[in-house]
Amino acid sequence: MKKIILLMCLLLFVFACTGSQGKTQSLLTGAVVQEIVPPVQDSVIAQEQTGELKEFYVEAFNWGFKPKTIEVNQGDRVKITAKSDDVDHGLAISAYGINIKLTPGKEETVEFIADKKGTFPFYCSVFCGQGHREMTGTLVVK
Questions:
Q1: Distance between CA 55 and CA 57 in Å, rounded?
Q2: How far apart are the C-alpha atoms of 6 and 59, rounded to whole Å?
Q3: What's the predicted TM-score (pTM) here?
Q4: Residue 107 carries which DSSP code?
Q5: CA distances (Å), 54 to each of 13, 48, 79, 82, 128, in order?
Q6: What structural domains does the chain harbor?
Q7: Please, which residues bridge with residue 60 across strands?
Q8: Residues near 55 by Cβ (< 8 Å), separated by ≥ 6?
Q9: Which residue in 129, 115, 113, 114 sits closest to 60, CA to CA?
Q10: pLDDT digits over 79-133, tens only?
Q11: How far, in Å, are 17, 53, 78, 94, 106 from residue 84 at the CA level?
Q12: Hey, which residues does 33 pair with through a beta bridge?
């Protein structure tokens, strides 16, 4: 009985190791059998850019953003160049994992694919004084 089990394990091992690019040759019949292998989906492919490049220049100041609303289409590549006009500010869009620090007079650029539809707030992420809480804007992805 042990010899039969050992022989079966050996045959299974040899059978599994003789395949090449989705084809396996049966040791019993010599026939070539096509294996069905499901395609592998790469997660990067799912986030492909389908739209166009949309560029925006955003100015941060005490206590606001100009423009206050940014509108794009789902699938667009969005490029935001931002700077502060007065003190340190931040520009954060939590839904897209964006959080950049803005230093007066220095431009910062961020790019992302607008892959989620909806209305998303953006806000100052660096405390900038008493009007800090009102320093918000809106990203609209149609």
A1: 7
A2: 74
A3: 0.64
A4: -
A5: 56, 15, 6, 14, 28
A6: 50-141 (2.60.40.420)
A7: 65, 84
A8: 79, 80, 81
A9: 129
A10: 999 999 999 999 999 999 999 999 998 999 999 999 999 999 999 999 988 989 9
A11: 63, 24, 20, 20, 7
A12: 24
Strand partners, 139: 70, 120
Q: What residue spans of 60-132 are helical by DSSP H?
A: none
Per-residue pLDDT of 58-79, as tens digits, reads: 999 998 999 999 999 999 999 9
Which residue blocks in 1-133 are alpha helix, DSSP H? 2-17
Residue showing tokens 């900038």: 128
CA 50 to chain centroid, in Å, comes to 14
Within 10 angstroms of residue 82's Cβ, the number of other Cβ atoms is 21
Beta carbons within 8 Å of 24's beta carbon, 6+ residues apart? 15, 18, 32, 33, 35
